[in-house]
Amino acid sequence: MNIQAPNFLSALSALQAIEDGSLSSEALVRACLERIAERDAAVQAFAHLDPDRAIRLAQEIDKGRGGGALRGLPFAAKDILDSADLPTAYGSSIYAGHRPGADAACIAMAREAGAVLLGKTATCEFATLTPCATRHPLDPSRTPGGSSSGSAAAVADGMVPVAFGSQTGASIIRPAAYCGVVGYKPSYGLINSSGLKHVSPSLDTIGVFTRTVADARYVVFGAAPEPALHAPRIAVCESGQWDSARPETVEALRAFTRGLERGGARVSTRRLPANLEAAAAMQIRLSAFEARHSLAHERMRYPDRLSPRLRERVDLEAGMSMAEYADLRRSMQAAQRDAENLFDDADVLLYPAADGEAEVGMETGSPRFGALWTFLHLPALSIPIGRGPAGLPLGAQLIGAPGRDLELLAAARFAEGLAIRD
Amino acid sequence: MNIQAPNFLSALSALQAIEDGSLSSEALVRACLERIAERDAAVQAFAHLDPDRAIRLAQEIDKGRGGGALRGLPFAAKDILDSADLPTAYGSSIYAGHRPGADAACIAMAREAGAVLLGKTATCEFATLTPCATRHPLDPSRTPGGSSSGSAAAVADGMVPVAFGSQTGASIIRPAAYCGVVGYKPSYGLINSSGLKHVSPSLDTIGVFTRTVADARYVVFGAAPEPALHAPRIAVCESGQWDSARPETVEALRAFTRGLERGGARVSTRRLPANLEAAAAMQIRLSAFEARHSLAHERMRYPDRLSPRLRERVDLEAGMSMAEYADLRRSMQAAQRDAENLFDDADVLLYPAADGEAEVGMETGSPRFGALWTFLHLPALSIPIGRGPAGLPLGAQLIGAPGRDLELLAAARFAEGLAIRD
């Protein structure tokens, strides 16, 4: 494959080329669509695509109509996000052909900035656990991870430079690690969630998949000044969860850590306190209780069209009372407060992004390495740090202090330059 | 009017009557519908109503099909909440006749518990400032308050015992005070917001209008045990905002406070710290920035169908960068943390619910007395405490500690018994 083709450019390079006139939005969109035409029968990253419409929108941009910071840039959006002129099915047969009344806020804002919505990417059923058809771009016998399966695969496979995803447990971090791309889950609520089909409103967080950290930063923050961070303080966060990381993950993280130290980072180690480690169990209870409410309509009207595992999940906390739920919410807030102490002498934490390489089969893998940080509302980001025994990508997760997304992104830029990437 | 008619019963009394067989759901629904038929040409509380469907649903409940804690109880929902089998227009001509794919979570959960959705109540445009047609039930020359105008008016006028509303500034507390009913805005996120058309996802909070505190408690928490609170500690929270309260409000709150003391409450006074008083200005900036994103689709596609004041609002913070927004979110979280200190030696705070009586004209009144507490994510509740010079209701607002909704409701039950009600 020709990785110098426009569809493999980073978002910032593509925007620069459009800006200086060496590339048109139409040419870029066509290159992406050709890649999709060539590859998507195997990868199945897209749930809905309307090539003619995307080309027409790009032509309008090229004619100078509208556009701002993302002028001419193609993007995709996970099919859990509403779109007014493309169907939105939330990964469920219940919503086949559904046409929402409005674009989700993140889609509309990207369009206002001049980006071209190429298509909607496949998602696990209601962004939970039951897989969609998407395959790993490098090995069709394997999962790309989930639930933002199509978004991760599309960016990894050169189909689109940017795709929105969402995370309730590890639905951005894990597929980014599996597919070898950057996955950025911002602080809870930073990207406006209007038009996201919620499954757990207290946890659901919109984020982006890109090929570089700089792209993720630019798509979310535009040209904001970068915080000075010459020698980031990176704390390797140890916990019992590391026992579930495969040897190649642990070894790759060790090598990455050595690279960070050689590169000038101040690396330390800290143990995740027991009360925070226990909070991961609260994420499961909270998300199950909220899914029962968020999907109450579908649960009652279409019980036979929910997958068995989703039916099981929405019934998991059927016995929890609202008073118990209120208690659980207070515990969540207390844990979020406690988590601040993790950053007393660290800018970011380093943690596994997934157990190991993408697994054989379509099961999307355990969310264990992402769920706690989602529950704590902390910004997190996965970057590729090498390959495992099957030749597939491994990721490292960096986690930022509460609301310190720009500092996380600065540390991730630093770290990205020191990671082994293929 | 016959206030012993079934449509004037409290929710708990109606449920008891249905349970013991002295009232059928159908009879109750018909009584509500008759009241609506008689009165709604003047009040205009309902945006969408389907009487035959409601009667049919009540008949099914009476036949014993399904139902739980709210078996047979009619309710209404603000038309900012999605409903699958009644139109949902969000108070905007853009969405005339719109049919969402699913019921909002709170509607679906109420239905699962056996409640009968009577209709959708009128809302200000996208639950913001531009009034809908609803009139004050006691004086058609006056506003019922907003943005949950129809929900407050319908409960006050005997059209329905319970109605869901939502609050981003003071959209539950103010209309409840104006209309002389109980308005309960829970802690942020307690009632699942799935299916709410968001205008400011970090603030939008679903709540309920009822005729008694016990009803509000039951609808949200069911039969949860009530915290023991024999002599609640109530702190009158003083602030510069009191200068905007009219003399009748200040006098009514003074009389109410004396009643609370006589009733055994331990009443103290505390000054709102300056940094928290200043946080009210952050609520305005945050909600304007988020509205710009949440309504991006409507803003771009239908600019001429937004009211001038909504267009102004969504442009108010057009210059705020995402980095500034991230800063603002951190300031919000810091203010939320500081607010905990307000409850060091108080169970609840006492504060005005509105400037005074409902004003002449259709302007819905200032949100000033609600906006800060919404921004702080604290649970709040308005109860009627008497009448003003025009003979219209005045309300008192009680504010609970973070996540302490059941304690707030217990204190409000205590206080309600000591308030002058007509």
From TrEMBL, chains A, B:
EC main class here is ligase
Which GO terms fall under molecular function for this chain's record? ligase activity; transferase activity
Say if the entry is tagged with keyword Cytoplasm: no
- Keyword entries, A-Z: Ligase, Transferase
Keyword Ligase among record annotations = yes
- Tell me the superkingdom of the source: Bacteria
- Show the coiled coil region(s): none
Record InterPro entries: Amidase (IPR000120), Amidase_dom (IPR023631), AS_sf (IPR036928)
Give the EC number: 6.3.5.-
Domain Amidase residue range list: 28-219, 229-409
Full protein name: Glutamyl-tRNA(Gln) amidotransferase subunit A
Q: Which organism is it from?
A: Pigmentiphaga humi
UniProt gene name: gatA_2
